[in-house]
Design brief:
This is DNA topoisomerase (ATP-hydrolyzing). This protein has 653 residues and is α+β, with helices and mostly antiparallel strands. It is built from 23 helices and 22 strands. Helix 3 packs antiparallel against helix 5.
Length: 653
Amino acid sequence: MAVNEYTAKQIQVLEGLEPVRKRPGMYIGSTDIRGLHECLREIIDNSVDESFAGTAQNVWVQIKKDGSAIVRDDGRGIPVDKHSSGLSALEITMTKLHAGGKFGGGAYKVSGGLHGVGASVVNALSSNFVVVVLRDNKAYFQEYDKGKPKNAVKETLQSQLDQWFPKEWGVAAGKNMTGTVTKFKLDDAIFKGLEFDKTKVKILLRDRAYLVAGLAFHFIDERDSDEEHYYFEGGIASLVNHSTRDKNPISDVIYFKKEDETISSEIAIRYTDTYAEVVKSFVNGINTTDGGTHVTGFRIALTRAITDYAKKTGYIREDKNGLSAQAGLTGEDMKEGLNAVIYIKMSSESLQFESQTKAKLNNPEVQGFVASMTKEGLDIYLEEHPNDARKILDKIILAAKARLAARAAKDAVLRKGALEGSSLPGKLADCQSTDPAFSEIYIVEGDSAGGSAKQGRDRKTQAILPLGGKILNTERAHLDKIVKFEDLKDLIVALGSGIGESINYDKLRYHKVIIMCDADVDGAHIATLLLTFFFRHMPDIIKHGYLYLAMPPLFKITIGKNVYYAYSDDERDTILTTHANGKFSIQRYKGLGEMNPSQLWETTMDPVNRTLKQVTVEDAQEADRTFTMLMGEEVPPRKRFIQTNAKFANLDI
């Protein structure tokens, strides 16, 4: 057959769940650790949907020693009677895409699952998948292999249930016992032996417990006998209170709620004396990490409400606080110290998401609804709580002054030509490539290591920017100080995307930004300072997966004429055990400067041999709390952290 021949023979029809196994990323986003947890989330959210329907009061989640997961609820139980197709409704739900009770049948007014796709997708991606339905005082059972039923839906025996589920869960089909139990083991051929991360699962359950007030979550990790339970009556107000527990609040938690025939919305807000913003948004229990129309409506109304109050009370006056009405307040000023949760519930039929993984809400009508309720709620609160209003305005006006000072500082630098694209920092050894996708920049600790890196690099794709030492702690600094700090100014210029209100990630010059520091205490501190800078001021570099940590070797082991590099104590011991009969010498690297250019290239910069750790943020709330605790002004939380974790420190560095 000719290469360019294109006939009906080339047209494939994928039946049943074959499309899912063929292209899993289309349905769960990826087959990495995020995709793995997305599968668990889908099954959990099916149970949460039962709570939305007013039935389930508990959700149990267990991770088994073999890596499988069990999720149970005490909801109504999936129907098992015959569907019009002739198959059991349970089998239809678990084996057919876009089949379920969330398409207008009245079973679910609100749901967070993948619109009838979630359970069947997880089934397709599992090497073993078991569902037990408890309803009508009976237990029904069906087992699947990679999405294909191994048996017809049938009643199951008590002895079988005892093999699978903890007895304390009460899975046995007792009187009035209802619910659905799902046990699944994801296919190693697709997920390459990945395992569920206990911390991620706990965060998932904790967030849903906050969002669905009155629904209890029970977690058991059989791998290490860990057990947690989550139950909150306070809803998202409790979530905001929890997320600001290590900060100094300057207001109470501001909470308001509004609903009509199609949309229900809750918003909780609190300002603290920190510089960072933490805003989380949810739709029907799903964390919309990329925001959407509900977040846009909130931001528009927040700016308008606070600006209107400031003008009404005469708070913005040159003679009062140095900020003129002409200078105004912007949305950027409102972000500093803002902690908020925006939660929308609406009909599953009406929801419009940007993609299958539901990271961004697209419903245009939600923007106006949220904007209206936010403006109304804040107007009332600010009028009724003048002391809180004053503190919030003081905070925002201080942010506005810092923004204007930063702009003035940046303009001054621009006039000198230091921030122009044609005038890159003198310390930067740029790469020849102008394509960001193939360009990477190493941020290197110290001039000595910087010199070795410049000599050993691949000049075509690798740029080197040495730092003079420890940079400014940006957790405690306004933008005006940041742009004046020499090393940070050089870094901002080198990256090319700008900073603050003028930031434009489309102008980023490198799609790999690599922090390369010494393997000692100072190196760890510098890396933490840089991570703080990126998390607080260039978060999208992390979000897009552009930020990395280089992992230089800890040991150089010479055995005869052969040289080996070890990146951990265990790797060192393995090399020595493998060559137990040879004479050896070990050099413990204390700094990058101890390596010559060829060694630095071979161990840490050569794309073939190097080890890079990609920096990701799985839980923005927890990351915010950690940076506030480690790099903020409050000493007691940091002291407690050090005392608690001192035993894990590697004193050899």
